[in-house]
Amino acid sequence: MTNDEIIAELERMKPMAGGALSNELTALGEKIKADDLAAAPPPDGPPIVKDVPLVWQDSPTLLTCTMGNWYGEPDSYSYQWQRDGLDAGGAEDEGAYDLSPGVDVGHKFTCVVTATNAKGSASSTSNEVTVA
After folding, report:
1. Which range marks the domain in which residue 7 is found?
2. What is the CATH number for 125?
3. Together in a domain, 86 and 124
């Protein structure tokens, strides 16, 4: 869960909490926002990963990868799929991988996302998923 999602959940809970607990939830949300801003790198460099990409198996024939969240305002992303630590091929401009039934079952997949802006690029590796 990202900090933004946590803050949204705290805001949703405040009306139900009432009184002192509502004040505590407000204070916690403000602390998360302040910590998030303090951790943000300067905007004048290459992208820096904030939340790593996430991979999951959508169906028996499809893996999906998010781009993650980045500081530095990336203007493009590329994806490299890996099976058991080696290049698995697949489209480099899409966060989806078409699985081969009977071939990919039991193998471990990750997705390496590269974010690029005018100042450079950086990569981040997703969680690992074993194909069922």
Report:
1. 3-39
2. 2.60.40.10
3. yes
Pair (34, 52) in one structural domain:
no
> What residue type is assigned to position 37 of the chain?
L
Instruction: For residue 47, give both structure tokens.
Output: 């992208």
58 shares a domain with 20: no
pTM for the whole structure: 0.69
Same-domain pairing of 74 and 118: yes
Q: Which residues contact 27 (CB under 8 A, 6 or more apart)?
A: none
In DSSP terms, which residues pair with 64 in a beta bridge?
56, 96
Residues paired with 120 in a beta bridge: 117
Query: Per the structure, how many domains does the chain have?
Result: 2
Contact 74, 117 (CB under 8 A): yes
- With tokens 């690992």, the residue in question is 128
At 46-60, the pLDDT tens digits run: 999 999 999 999 999
For residue range 96-123, list pLDDT tens digits in order. Answer: 999 998 899 999 999 999 999 999 999 9
pLDDT tens, position by position, 3-60: 666 666 666 666 666 666 666 656 666 766 666 656 666 668 999 999 999 999 999 9
